[in-house]
Amino acid sequence: MWVCSAPLSRFAAGLLCGIPRPLIHIRSASVAETGTTRAYEDQNCEVEGYLAFSRARIGPFFQERPVLKNPFLEDGLLRGYLSRHLPQEAVTSDLCAFGERMANEVDGWGRECEVTPPRLVHFDAWGHRVDHIVTSQAWKQMKYISAREGLVAIGYERPFGEWSRVYQMSKLYLFSPSSGLYTCPLAMTDGAAKVIQSLGVSWPGEEAYGRLTSRQPEHFWTSGQWMTERRGGSDVASGTETLAVPQVDGSYKLHGFKWFTSATDADMTLTLARVQNRAGATTPGSRGLSLFYAEVSRDQEGRLKGIEVQKLKDKLGTRQMPTAELLLDGLQAHRLSEEGRGVASIANMLTITRIHNSVSAVAAMRRVVQLAGDYASRRTAFGKLLRDHPLHMQTLARMEVETRGAFLLLMDVCRLLGREETGIASQLETHLLRLLTPVVKLYTGKQAVAVVSEGLESFGGQGYIEDTGLPGLLRDAQVLSIWEGTTNVLSLDVLRCVARSSGMVLEAFFSHTKSLLSAASNVPSLTPAVKAANGALSELGMFVQLAAGRDASYMELASRDLAYSLARIYTGALLIDHASWKGASPSDTYAAIRWCEQNLCPVATNQASGWYDTDTASLDTALVYDKHSQAQ
Ligand code: UCC
Within 10 A of 190 (CB to CB), how many other CB atoms are there? Predict the structure, then answer.
């Protein structure tokens, strides 16, 4: 950037005498760069007249920006959790070094991904259809660093046994808010590796598995997850129209239209389609869906084989990442699942991507809380720093409590995943993992939007200004409660797993929560929190008893509140458990107490108010569509 030197500025000022325009290119930013009022005054003296007046209007004050510091060192709860459960020096030093890279290097790339979004080039200069998705250099660097740092590989190498998922997800948690949404392809890549592993690593998935879990950037592949079609975002089972036509060599050709495909520059994908029989017929519904593996490749002319990219989506957020509509026009694919077991087979992918989603949600909360806290130490209003205004601190403390609770819930699910994958999970832990996966995804997705929104407000107007980088946090958070299952679809998934396990998942929940609470019952400072959590657990038990005889529509209406109650009670127990650890800080206790002061069991409260009763559904509908006006 050009900074005006003193002789040059004099020259420029002379040239501009009598020209009725401000001298915009003699930048006031030079004042900010020198950072001293003195420099400003000197320049004023030198240029005089018109320029001085222009500068006087701008004024010498520039607000210090919030500074991103090493997110590992800044995060006392992450470090506390790891020193309790995974105190290995190798983990600490790796995360510390990685955090340093986030602050000094990667965060800048993330910003570049945001301001240089992908674009689609349909045709080359000679008219050939090429469908090239052009991504930024920074986006490519994200792929490189992801491989090098083992952001997927760690989950499969398992360097710390059952704790490897905690380690991997901690690393992703540091990466996520700086990654320019590269965590999205990583989530799908991890999910695809998991599916291939769970179906048995053999041809045709063998090479793909090696690439998805590779640390070699040139060998590393990312995967897509093409599930969504025009008729079915949530209702995949009846909405999937893509046909799989068997070929003589045992492969299939896919024909269909995928309506949302995220990170479409992937090297391969997993997708669902209906196998066509010899008569050209297919089986409807879930039992007609099978899971396919396909590579994304090009022919010698550079054309995508069997795929046309119709367009890139114009989205509220996640603009860093290409999301496309794809026409599958004879895409060669291999069936991975048994015929008709597509949804059940891709469910493993959903478990992984839903956990990744939760990582991104908690990481977004943590990032905005860190920046808001830093800013509060730099910004003065009404005669004192924001950090010295108790009401402002109360607001940030509430965000902090939400973030802490979400973090512990997330880490507990990662712990359970690690135990299951290493074959040491008890039956109870397997049930808990199944139940808590939709719970953590739906709850943290909603929290992220609320906390990040509150966080933006704490910067005042600056939180609304694009080139601060802050609004992008909110835009990207909004998707977290939508993709990978909306809040309501996941609430129904909670009911699904309760029903399919004949209630065993709930038994596991009650049993484990009680044991966490009873272990902390002799810690006097935690008494109010333990009492509140125990009370909520009893209320939940009563709800379950009362609901046992109710029909499906009653349970459907209760499902969202049930999921929230599970999240709040379990998180309360985890906060209490963490606060009762010998290395805990007084703030851990305070956070547990504050968390447990909220309504921990909304399903009981709303049940008592009749929210799920038979006549409520029609009243809700009448309310939503009410056209009555008092004026009529
Ligand atoms: O692709 C997308 C965006 C990609 C971007 C990824 C970013 C990740 C985060 C990044 C962070 C930055 S979004 C599209 C995602 N789509 C969904 O999430 C679909 C949402 N819909 C559902 O989840 C529905 O509930 C369905 C599709 C699962 C419902 O299907 P069905 O066929 O009607 O359900 P059924 O009949 O109840 O279940 C079929 C089988 C059963 O197995 P079996 O037959 O053995 O009993 C179920 O138990 O699937 C099993 N199943 C599950 N198993 C269903 N859901 C699950 C589950 N969650 N876990 C285990």
Answer: 30
Degrees, nearest 5: CA angle 185-188-193: 125
Reading the block at residue 221, the tokens are: 């592949």
Which is nearest to 404 in space by CA: 433, 376, 435, 369? 369
Burial environment of residue 322 by CB neighbours within 10 A (0 to 12, 13 to 18, 19 or more)? buried
Assign 17 to helix, strand or coil. coil
Q: How far is CA 25 from CA 12, 128, 413, in A?
A: 10, 44, 54
What does the pLDDT look like over 405-462, one tens digit per residue? 999 999 999 999 999 999 999 999 999 999 999 999 999 999 999 999 999 999 999 9
Q: Is the CB of 485 under 6 A from ligand 1?
A: yes
Q: What is the pTM of this model?
A: 0.91
Is 496's C-beta closer than 6 angstroms to any atom of ligand 1?
Answer: yes
Question: Is the CB of residue 258 less than 8 Å from the CB of residue 228?
Answer: yes
To the question of domain 223-345 being in CATH 2.40.110.20, the answer is yes
Please work out whether the CB of residue 183 comes within 6 Å of at least one atom of ligand 1.
yes
User: Is residue 320 lining ligand 1, measured as CB closer than 6 Å?
Assistant: no
Any atom of ligand 1 within 6 Å of the Cβ of 184: yes
Give the CA dihedral 266, 270, 272, 273, nearest 10 degrees.
Answer: 80
The CA distance from 434 to 119, in Å, is: 38
Which residue, judged by its Cα, is nearest atom 22 of ligand 1? 234
35: left (phi over 0), alpha (psi -120 to 50) or beta: left
